[in-house]
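are you around this afternoon, could really use another pair of eyes. what follows is a protein written twice so to speak, once as letters and once as C-alpha coordinates for the fold. i want to understand how the C-alpha coordinates follow from the sequence so walk me through it. anything you notice is useful, everything is just below.
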Amino acid sequence: MIDAMAEYYEGKDKLLDTIRENTNYTTIEGYQDYLYTSYMQSHALEEYAKSLVTDKDIEEYYNDEAKGDVEVYHILVVPKVTDDMTKEEQEQAESDAKKKVEDMIEELNKADNKLEKFKELAKANSDDTATKDKDGNLGYINYGDLSSSYDELLDAVYKLKDGDYSKNVITTELGYHIAYRNQSKEKESLDKLKDEIKETLANRKLQNEENIAVESMKYYRKLYNLEIVDSELDRQYGIYINNIINSSSSN
Protein backbone atom coordinates (compact mmCIF):
# COMPACT_ATOMS: atom_id res chain seq x y z
CA MET A 1 0.00 0.00 0.00
CA ILE A 2 2.80 2.42 0.89
CA ASP A 3 4.48 1.82 -2.48
CA ALA A 4 1.21 2.64 -4.26
CA MET A 5 0.79 5.78 -2.17
CA ALA A 6 4.37 6.84 -2.87
CA GLU A 7 3.74 6.40 -6.59
CA TYR A 8 0.56 8.46 -6.35
CA TYR A 9 2.40 11.27 -4.53
CA GLU A 10 5.36 11.03 -6.93
CA GLY A 11 7.90 9.79 -4.41
CA LYS A 12 8.36 8.97 -0.75
CA ASP A 13 9.59 12.45 0.13
CA LYS A 14 6.31 14.03 -1.00
CA LEU A 15 4.36 11.22 0.65
CA LEU A 16 6.16 11.91 3.94
CA ASP A 17 5.39 15.63 3.65
CA THR A 18 1.71 14.79 3.16
CA ILE A 19 1.70 12.41 6.13
CA ARG A 20 3.27 15.03 8.38
CA GLU A 21 0.84 17.72 7.22
CA ASN A 22 -2.29 15.62 7.76
CA THR A 23 -1.48 13.23 10.63
CA ASN A 24 0.48 13.06 13.86
CA TYR A 25 3.00 10.65 12.34
CA THR A 26 6.51 11.83 11.49
CA THR A 27 7.79 8.74 9.65
CA ILE A 28 6.48 6.59 6.85
CA GLU A 29 7.19 3.49 8.95
CA GLY A 30 5.07 4.78 11.82
CA TYR A 31 2.20 5.60 9.48
CA GLN A 32 2.54 2.19 7.83
CA ASP A 33 2.25 0.49 11.22
CA TYR A 34 -0.87 2.55 11.92
CA LEU A 35 -2.44 1.49 8.62
CA TYR A 36 -1.64 -2.16 9.28
CA THR A 37 -3.07 -2.02 12.80
CA SER A 38 -6.21 -0.26 11.58
CA TYR A 39 -6.67 -2.87 8.86
CA MET A 40 -6.28 -5.75 11.32
CA GLN A 41 -8.75 -4.14 13.75
CA SER A 42 -11.31 -3.69 10.98
CA HIS A 43 -10.77 -7.23 9.74
CA ALA A 44 -11.17 -8.67 13.23
CA LEU A 45 -14.39 -6.69 13.77
CA GLU A 46 -15.79 -7.84 10.42
CA GLU A 47 -14.99 -11.47 11.23
CA TYR A 48 -16.65 -11.12 14.63
CA ALA A 49 -19.79 -9.69 12.99
CA LYS A 50 -19.85 -12.62 10.57
CA SER A 51 -19.63 -15.06 13.49
CA LEU A 52 -22.91 -13.63 14.81
CA VAL A 53 -24.78 -14.47 11.59
CA THR A 54 -26.57 -17.81 11.87
CA ASP A 55 -27.63 -20.25 9.17
CA LYS A 56 -31.22 -19.35 10.04
CA ASP A 57 -30.47 -15.66 9.44
CA ILE A 58 -28.98 -16.51 6.05
CA GLU A 59 -31.91 -18.69 5.03
CA GLU A 60 -34.46 -16.05 6.08
CA TYR A 61 -32.60 -13.38 4.08
CA TYR A 62 -32.46 -15.67 1.06
CA ASN A 63 -36.19 -16.37 1.20
CA ASP A 64 -37.32 -12.82 1.97
CA GLU A 65 -34.78 -10.46 0.44
CA ALA A 66 -32.45 -12.11 -2.08
CA LYS A 67 -33.27 -11.18 -5.66
CA GLY A 68 -32.24 -12.27 -9.12
CA ASP A 69 -30.22 -9.88 -11.28
CA VAL A 70 -32.20 -7.45 -13.43
CA GLU A 71 -31.17 -5.67 -16.63
CA VAL A 72 -31.86 -2.00 -16.04
CA TYR A 73 -31.86 1.09 -18.23
CA HIS A 74 -32.03 4.43 -16.48
CA ILE A 75 -32.06 8.14 -17.12
CA LEU A 76 -30.51 10.44 -14.53
CA VAL A 77 -31.18 14.16 -14.32
CA VAL A 78 -28.94 16.04 -11.88
CA PRO A 79 -30.29 19.36 -10.54
CA LYS A 80 -28.11 22.28 -11.65
CA VAL A 81 -27.51 23.49 -8.12
CA THR A 82 -24.45 25.56 -7.18
CA ASP A 83 -23.19 26.82 -3.83
CA ASP A 84 -23.57 30.47 -4.79
CA MET A 85 -27.31 30.11 -5.45
CA THR A 86 -29.91 31.43 -3.04
CA LYS A 87 -32.18 28.91 -1.32
CA GLU A 88 -34.99 29.86 -3.69
CA GLU A 89 -32.75 29.37 -6.73
CA GLN A 90 -31.64 25.97 -5.47
CA GLU A 91 -35.24 24.91 -4.92
CA GLN A 92 -36.09 26.05 -8.43
CA ALA A 93 -33.20 24.03 -9.87
CA GLU A 94 -34.46 20.94 -8.03
CA SER A 95 -37.97 21.58 -9.30
CA ASP A 96 -36.75 22.03 -12.89
CA ALA A 97 -34.83 18.73 -12.80
CA LYS A 98 -37.79 16.84 -11.42
CA LYS A 99 -40.12 18.44 -14.01
CA LYS A 100 -37.76 17.34 -16.79
CA VAL A 101 -38.06 13.74 -15.62
CA GLU A 102 -41.84 14.02 -15.31
CA ASP A 103 -42.03 15.32 -18.89
CA MET A 104 -40.00 12.35 -20.13
CA ILE A 105 -42.33 9.95 -18.33
CA GLU A 106 -45.20 11.58 -20.18
CA GLU A 107 -43.39 11.01 -23.48
CA LEU A 108 -42.88 7.36 -22.58
CA ASN A 109 -46.55 6.99 -21.71
CA LYS A 110 -47.47 8.08 -25.26
CA ALA A 111 -44.81 6.03 -27.08
CA ASP A 112 -45.69 2.84 -28.96
CA ASN A 113 -42.26 1.25 -28.48
CA LYS A 114 -41.40 2.10 -24.88
CA LEU A 115 -37.86 0.71 -24.83
CA GLU A 116 -36.77 2.43 -28.03
CA LYS A 117 -38.23 5.70 -26.80
CA PHE A 118 -36.45 5.21 -23.47
CA LYS A 119 -33.12 4.71 -25.25
CA GLU A 120 -33.71 7.83 -27.31
CA LEU A 121 -34.51 9.90 -24.24
CA ALA A 122 -31.47 8.55 -22.36
CA LYS A 123 -29.08 9.52 -25.13
CA ALA A 124 -30.54 13.00 -25.35
CA ASN A 125 -31.09 13.79 -21.67
CA SER A 126 -29.25 11.57 -19.17
CA ASP A 127 -26.58 13.14 -16.98
CA ASP A 128 -25.02 9.74 -16.29
CA THR A 129 -22.00 9.99 -18.59
CA ALA A 130 -21.07 6.33 -17.99
CA THR A 131 -24.32 5.01 -19.50
CA LYS A 132 -25.68 7.85 -21.63
CA ASP A 133 -24.07 6.59 -24.84
CA LYS A 134 -25.17 3.03 -24.00
CA ASP A 135 -28.85 4.03 -24.12
CA GLY A 136 -28.82 4.32 -20.33
CA ASN A 137 -28.04 0.61 -19.90
CA LEU A 138 -26.67 -0.29 -16.45
CA GLY A 139 -26.48 -3.97 -17.41
CA TYR A 140 -27.58 -6.79 -15.11
CA ILE A 141 -27.37 -5.46 -11.57
CA ASN A 142 -28.32 -6.34 -8.02
CA TYR A 143 -27.95 -4.80 -4.59
CA GLY A 144 -24.28 -4.25 -3.83
CA ASP A 145 -23.14 -4.22 -7.46
CA LEU A 146 -23.25 -0.41 -7.57
CA SER A 147 -22.83 2.13 -4.81
CA SER A 148 -25.54 2.43 -2.17
CA SER A 149 -26.64 5.60 -4.00
CA TYR A 150 -28.51 3.30 -6.37
CA ASP A 151 -30.41 1.35 -3.71
CA GLU A 152 -33.55 3.49 -4.04
CA LEU A 153 -33.42 2.96 -7.80
CA LEU A 154 -33.23 -0.80 -7.33
CA ASP A 155 -36.05 -0.70 -4.78
CA ALA A 156 -38.24 0.82 -7.48
CA VAL A 157 -37.00 -1.54 -10.22
CA TYR A 158 -37.80 -4.67 -8.22
CA LYS A 159 -41.39 -3.49 -7.95
CA LEU A 160 -41.66 -3.44 -11.75
CA LYS A 161 -42.27 -6.32 -14.15
CA ASP A 162 -39.98 -7.09 -17.08
CA GLY A 163 -40.67 -4.66 -19.91
CA ASP A 164 -42.05 -1.98 -17.59
CA TYR A 165 -40.74 1.43 -16.51
CA SER A 166 -41.19 3.66 -13.50
CA LYS A 167 -44.29 5.84 -13.78
CA ASN A 168 -43.15 8.10 -10.95
CA VAL A 169 -39.90 9.99 -10.48
CA ILE A 170 -37.27 8.00 -8.55
CA THR A 171 -35.28 10.21 -6.19
CA THR A 172 -31.78 9.25 -5.02
CA GLU A 173 -28.85 11.22 -3.63
CA LEU A 174 -27.58 11.42 -7.21
CA GLY A 175 -30.65 13.19 -8.56
CA TYR A 176 -33.87 12.17 -10.30
CA HIS A 177 -34.30 9.01 -12.37
CA ILE A 178 -36.53 7.02 -14.65
CA ALA A 179 -35.83 3.28 -14.73
CA TYR A 180 -36.75 0.61 -17.27
CA ARG A 181 -36.65 -3.05 -16.22
CA ASN A 182 -35.86 -4.98 -19.39
CA GLN A 183 -35.11 -8.56 -18.35
CA SER A 184 -34.48 -10.53 -15.18
CA LYS A 185 -32.77 -13.70 -14.03
CA GLU A 186 -33.76 -16.23 -11.39
CA LYS A 187 -31.85 -15.77 -8.16
CA GLU A 188 -28.96 -18.15 -7.64
CA SER A 189 -29.06 -21.05 -5.19
CA LEU A 190 -28.65 -20.56 -1.45
CA ASP A 191 -25.31 -22.37 -1.55
CA LYS A 192 -23.91 -19.94 -4.12
CA LEU A 193 -25.20 -16.86 -2.29
CA LYS A 194 -24.44 -17.97 1.27
CA ASP A 195 -21.10 -16.17 1.69
CA GLU A 196 -22.41 -13.00 0.05
CA ILE A 197 -25.49 -12.99 2.27
CA LYS A 198 -23.38 -13.55 5.39
CA GLU A 199 -21.27 -10.52 4.49
CA THR A 200 -24.38 -8.41 3.88
CA LEU A 201 -25.89 -9.36 7.23
CA ALA A 202 -22.57 -8.80 9.00
CA ASN A 203 -22.38 -5.29 7.54
CA ARG A 204 -25.88 -4.61 8.83
CA LYS A 205 -24.78 -5.60 12.30
CA LEU A 206 -21.76 -3.31 12.06
CA GLN A 207 -24.01 -0.41 11.06
CA ASN A 208 -26.89 -1.02 13.46
CA GLU A 209 -25.55 -2.60 16.64
CA GLU A 210 -24.02 0.18 18.72
CA ASN A 211 -21.85 -1.90 21.07
CA ILE A 212 -20.56 -4.44 18.58
CA ALA A 213 -17.00 -3.07 18.72
CA VAL A 214 -16.94 -3.44 22.50
CA GLU A 215 -18.44 -6.93 22.33
CA SER A 216 -15.83 -7.95 19.78
CA MET A 217 -13.02 -6.81 22.09
CA LYS A 218 -14.50 -8.88 24.93
CA TYR A 219 -14.92 -11.83 22.58
CA TYR A 220 -11.31 -11.84 21.40
CA ARG A 221 -9.96 -11.37 24.94
CA LYS A 222 -11.89 -14.44 26.05
CA LEU A 223 -11.08 -16.43 22.91
CA TYR A 224 -7.32 -15.96 23.26
CA ASN A 225 -7.35 -15.85 27.07
CA LEU A 226 -5.78 -12.38 27.11
CA GLU A 227 -5.14 -10.95 30.56
CA ILE A 228 -3.96 -7.40 31.29
CA VAL A 229 -1.21 -7.77 33.87
CA ASP A 230 -0.62 -4.09 34.55
CA SER A 231 -3.29 -2.98 37.07
CA GLU A 232 -3.38 0.65 35.87
CA LEU A 233 -3.72 -0.42 32.24
CA ASP A 234 -6.50 -2.82 33.25
CA ARG A 235 -8.27 0.02 35.09
CA GLN A 236 -7.97 2.34 32.10
CA TYR A 237 -9.27 -0.41 29.82
CA GLY A 238 -12.33 -0.81 32.04
CA ILE A 239 -12.96 2.94 31.99
CA TYR A 240 -12.59 2.97 28.20
CA ILE A 241 -15.12 0.16 27.74
CA ASN A 242 -17.63 1.74 30.15
CA ASN A 243 -17.30 5.13 28.47
CA ILE A 244 -18.14 3.60 25.10
CA ILE A 245 -21.17 1.75 26.52
CA ASN A 246 -22.44 4.85 28.33
CA SER A 247 -21.93 7.00 25.25
CA SER A 248 -23.95 4.55 23.15
CA SER A 249 -26.71 4.41 25.76
CA SER A 250 -27.02 8.20 25.92
CA ASN A 251 -27.41 8.40 22.13
In short: The CA atoms of residues 5 and 116 lie 46 Å apart.
